[in-house]
Queue: 4 jobs
Job 1
Amino acid sequence: MWLNDQKIIPSAIRRYRKALAASTPRHIVIDGLFDQQKLDSICAVLQQEQYWHSQKHSYSALYVDESQWHATPDTERFVQRDLWQGYIAVANHAQSAIALEFLQFLRGTEFMALLSKIFDVQVTDIHVAKPEINTNFFRLGARDFVNQHADDSPGREICLLLYLNKDWSNEQGGELVFMGKDDHSVTIAPLYNRCVLFDPSSEGSEHWVKAVTHGAAAAYRYNVTSWYWSE
Ligand SMILES: O=C(O)CCC(=O)C(=O)O
Ligand SMILES: [Fe+2]
């Protein structure tokens, strides 16, 4: 049981739908959606250092190697963060399986049906060439960043962000910020078991992550990013 049943009863889903319709950008924040014990086990897996791989993107190129990165001016640097390499982790360390299983759950029919209901759109992987590359664990250290961007793309209907940071405090930074409307930006702290769902094509959905502070008690800010597509 990956989901906390209380969070998916019909009255809760009605509330999510209302909140979605009333917000700019179209987004909802659900705290405690997933089973806490399961997430605890996943967090333990993610502490292993050797399965994280640095990823860098500029605004003009999706993947940038070290030499290209050096030649990229700061203003063109878009993302620097670490990606968890699930298949390598599981091949080397069987106890990592729970973390990969969770990513697979997030792409499974049960969870995608829940998202379809909340957003009133049918999301499916039938035309997605490599579904698994749409759902990942990332971590951000104090030198990393996710600068302002939009996640919209034709057919991409829903973005999920899930935070896995126990005892995260305000001084640690790392908030997600949506541009919002008329200078009303929306700031969301990356708290444990907090799930943000948003429509990447809605007004004000451009977003970025505030810097994680140096000397933060926890060195890294962990999250899942998952994208969902319609037919
Ligand atoms: O980590 C976050 O809060 C946002 C990540 C993000 O914007 C992305 O993965 O596209
Ligand atoms: Fe994003």
Job 2
Amino acid sequence: MMTMMQLADNRMSLADATTQAPIEIDVDDVSIVFDTPKGQVVAADRVSFQIRRGEFVCLLGPSGCGKSTVLNTIAGFETPFEGSVRVARKPVTGPGPDRGMVFQQPHLFPWKSVRSNISHGPSMAGKSSKQAGAIADDLIAMVGLTRFADAYPHTLSGGMQQRVAIARALANRPAVLLMDEPFGALDAQTRAVMQESLLALWAQVGTTIVFVTHDIDEAIFLADRVLLMSAGPGRILRDLRIDLPRPRSSELVLSPAYAAYKKDCLDLIRAESLRAFDQQAVK
Ligand SMILES: Nc1ncnc2c1ncn2[C@@H]1O[C@H](COP(=O)(O)OP(=O)(O)OP(=O)(O)O)[C@@H](O)[C@H]1O
């Protein structure tokens, strides 16, 4: 069994490889407009970006800037008003097992054990109960919940439930994991532990991750690239490569390089948040 440090070292070479990897997600000139009783809301305005296979990319921006809408478009829950989204070169026309999703709330089946929650997807996809159970047990070990395999969700802490939700999303072996503020409901300490364990898990599975957050520290700590979004209408303001070494631990936040990335992001986000606040005030 590899140690956490060996896994992280392995991840470093994978990170180098991602700059050469094929394009996994191609969001091309996507605009999304919602009709509301108060008129049209442009949630995304000509958003374009590409993500390579195995990359960890954070979508960062102020509340209401359209992060979830863009993520939902990749998931196939929203249809672009204009533009196109491709995953592995295929146009996205709806949800599919190649894209796993994790939300802020774990949404587990309360009547199923941890193992059954995780094996549910593979069972539905036609795996035998033995195969589905083996997939679940592997993932349960990866998220560090072996002792709780037979436990029910209500007996677990919020962080543990979210680890089950992540394992469940990975059970169908998706090429892409889409995460919408998955640690937003957790306390600060649990959140920090979850961030480190997500990086260790990513080192093992190599899945492309798109992670939505409005937390600057979380985005810089996790990502290979941060896509900074502007508020209303949502646009990509900056595509920032985070060239910080891996493995990353909590001490990283004390480094001057980290501080420089944070200052860049803070300045941009502050300007955008103020702009959004002013817009809301006059509506
Ligand atoms: N189904 C919908 N119908 C109408 N308006 C919507 C719908 N979904 C989102 N919006 C609007 O689109 C804009 C972008 O919303 P979205 O949830 O994508 O932002 P966000 O950046 O994820 O925000 P938050 O961080 O607060 O979740 C907001 O103005 C929101 O009110």
Job 3
Amino acid sequence: QSAKPVIPADDSLYQQFGGQPGLVKLMDDFMTRLLADPRMNPFFKDVNQQHVKEQLVAQFCELSGGPCKLKGPDMKKVHAGFDIDRSAFNALVEVLQQAMDAQGIPFSAQNRMLAQLAPMHRDIINVP
Ligand code: HEM
């Protein structure tokens, strides 16, 4: 009888983000920074911030190879109700980078994550 091949999931990026506790801390700080940023505050002040943080934890967990799956509407639907142009997208990424820096997440890990987020601009930017 042949052994089943064991293919270990690569969760190295998830580990570099500090696993679940690391992601929860990251998103708490990220949301605080989004609300403090005059460019981002108008987008986030009236939404269910706790829910958005939880969804972001699940999304980053999944993207980093952790044991999660983001459930919910796709990125296009989620953002359709907001006017998001390229500069707003870039501003959000800038705030995210500051939050990742503040958590001491290694630059290489930040870049691996940003590389997965970048293509989402096609679904999220909806204003020329
Ligand atoms: C790569 C970039 C982005 C990612 C990965 C991302 C991801 C997400 C996720 C996972 C949610 C929660 C969805 C849910 O409730 O099921 C969310 C919500 C939201 N995002 Fe983004 N987002 C990005 C960029 C942006 C940008 C650029 C803006 C505005 C400038 C923005 C504004 C919002 C707002 C306002 C909500 C709350 C929507 C609501 O509850 O009605 N996002 N985003």
Job 4
Amino acid sequence: MAIQEVLRLYPPAAFVSREALQENTQIGNINVPKGVCIWTLIPTLHRDADIWGSDVNEFKPERFANGVANACKIPQLYIPFGLGPRLCLGRHFAMVQLKVVLSLIISNFSFSLSPKYRHCPTYKMIVEPGQDVQILIKRLNCCNL
Ligand code: HEM
């Protein structure tokens, strides 16, 4: 749930793009000429209050307690790994990796953000911290490493 919520608020891939391959592609009332590239901005979908509710900008992992289908009004708009036939090939691998790494970190260390941390997510090919992430880390006594 925590990973899902992080991927909602800060999807590393900021957009998915598709090229209109046919003449007169119609999306709603918009006519898209052949050859035009359509960018769908993932953070915009993930932060739409009409879909997620008024707490859309809050970090609330529990919104995923009953799955994506119950976390928002239109689950198809939760797309951290894209959608359709070009959906991310590494999505399951990425989720397993994230769970393993996070479990190892939180079972061996306590950590908190340094007062020096400045929150400024930045887009540079992917969405990433704009001024690094300074963290205060303390090894737990029961450290397994
Ligand atoms: C949190 C980690 C990751 C995120 C958020 C992510 C996100 C994405 C997104 C949004 C796309 C575009 C999908 C679309 O156009 O509909 C994509 C494509 C792709 N991703 Fe990932 N990805 C992640 C990790 C990985 C990893 C670990 C691998 C490989 C081990 C991987 C391999 C690929 C490949 C090969 C494609 C292209 C698929 C295609 O065009 O058919 N990704 N990813």
